[in-house]
Fold this sequence. Notes:
By secondary structure, the chain is mainly α. The protein has two domains: 128 residues, no CATH class; 81 residues, no CATH class. It has eleven helices and two strands, in the order H-E-E-H-H-H-H-H-H-H-H-H-H. Strands 1-2 form a two-stranded antiparallel ribbon. Helix 2 packs parallel to helix 5 and helix 7 runs antiparallel to helix 8. It starts with a helix and ends with a helix. 17% of the residues are buried. This is Retrovirus-related Pol polyprotein from transposon TNT 1-94. Pfam families: Retrotran_gag_2.
Amino acid sequence: MAEEDSTLSRRTTHHDVGQEIELCIPPHLKFLIFNIKNLVPTQLTLENYSIWRLQLFQHVSTNGYRDHLTELAMCPPEADAIDHARWILIDRNLVSAIFSTISASILTYVLTLNTARDVWLTLERRLQPTNWSRVIQLKNKLHQIQMKDRTMQQYLHQIKKDNIAAAGSTVDTEDIILYILNGLPSTYNPFKTAIRTSLQPISFDDLYSLLCSEEINLHHQHNQEL
């Protein structure tokens, strides 16, 4: 508990008045620290950097500490004793919060770093190339996906899951729709032609509804032929 208290508060001396002042952690940062594992449930590994980064950055930004990651919040000079100590207190608690969301295998990359910005940049340099390679693989998988014997819901769910896994590198809606149409069997050819020749763009949600309806129509036609 003593170690926790020393992290959440710090004593500093105001030289002008010779008075020792205790700095306490701001309420928003305290909330972030105590809830970080619920707010960022994805523990960072080699495979999920983009999702982890998105979750962490969102909550750090929402609570007002984005600048500590983007380097806009510069550490005040030591001559400004109180502001300097306050900045150090905030930044070191941010570092502790970030560390608690990182798996042991990744933690070794950043364990000796002192600022949140250094941790953020080091993880970006280390893991972004790995993430980019994974995104390429996922896009290639989307390009080759086929409906085969899946139901329409199973097929579209698989595409949605792969697209989410590629988060961090945007896949355009038009590309996703193209992947979906290319993977449909020949029985959907009239439907594919209608979508491709339409002058109006279509959203993924609208396409989802139309495809589910088309699946029902095709099953109905097939049963009538039997």
